[in-house]
Amino acid sequence: MKISIVLITLNEEANLPRTLASVMPLVRDGQGEIIVVDSGSTDRTLEIARSHGAKIFIEEWKGFAAQKNSAMQKASGDWILQLDADEALEEELAEEINRELDESGSLVGYWIPRKNYFLGRWIKHGGFYPDPKLRLIRRGAGKFEEYGAHPTIKVHGPTGRLKNALTHNSYPTLRGYIDHMNSYSSSGAEVAVAKGRLGFNLLNIVLRPKLTFLYNYIFRLGFLDGREGFLLHLYHAVYVSWKYAKAWELSRNKRS
Questions:
Q1: The whole model's pTM is what?
Q2: CA nearest 5: which of 137, 112, 113, 130?
Q3: Could you give the CA distance from residue 233 to residue 217 in angstroms, rounded to a whole number?
Q4: Least C-beta-crowded within 10 Å: which of 171, 193, 204, 221?
Q5: Do 138 and 55 meet the contact criterion of CB atoms below 8 Å apart?
Q6: pLDDT category, 151, cuts 50, 70, 90?
Q7: CA distance 134 to 114
Q8: C-alpha angle with apex 105: 101 to 107, nearest 5 degrees?
Q9: Where are the beta strands (DSSP E) in 113-184?
């Protein structure tokens, strides 16, 4: 079997049909499989996964890296493509992956550019594109390592880069974005504490968010993405403030 598509899910009925439809060119005619590890969905997620022929496993939540690694361990394909449930392959990307896997040589993985959408708009500037992600690897060549809410795959060996992109339909509403940033800032706070950032530091809580906004919105041309770009960079700066304030709170609670 050439490729395994692996995902972790929890109540993803709004996103999953688009994601699974986009990978069908990779798995049709028995050349691939879809692995879904679900952590307790109460909506139509599992029904949708079954309708696309996915192999489904139900597991308690273990953290992002551990959950993703568990999904990859269940794969039987020569290659593994790890996707989030709110990501999809452009048609050209599926075609490119099929070509590259036949000519991969000694490569153990591929970086894939990602188009991030915010309030329905593709954010092309401010550091949000091409946003390369190492998601396609040979089975057994690597695994995810924990880094808060954004674990990354680590591999040993040479990697290549694909030209066509994943689409990341992550934040169709402001409420969804703010909810995610609240959760991600808590995970980021744990990482900051692990790095020794423990005190109440106005530089991190007040000045760093302002500099983050100026850097991404002005110097990295985020202003070219219109109103959506302005709101994205404004609230990303707020996330930075939350992260360091929560790091202080977390360290204070540990000391007490």
A1: 0.90
A2: 137
A3: 6
A4: 221
A5: no
A6: confident
A7: 10
A8: 80
A9: 114-118, 121-122, 133-138, 142-145, 152-155, 159-161, 166-171
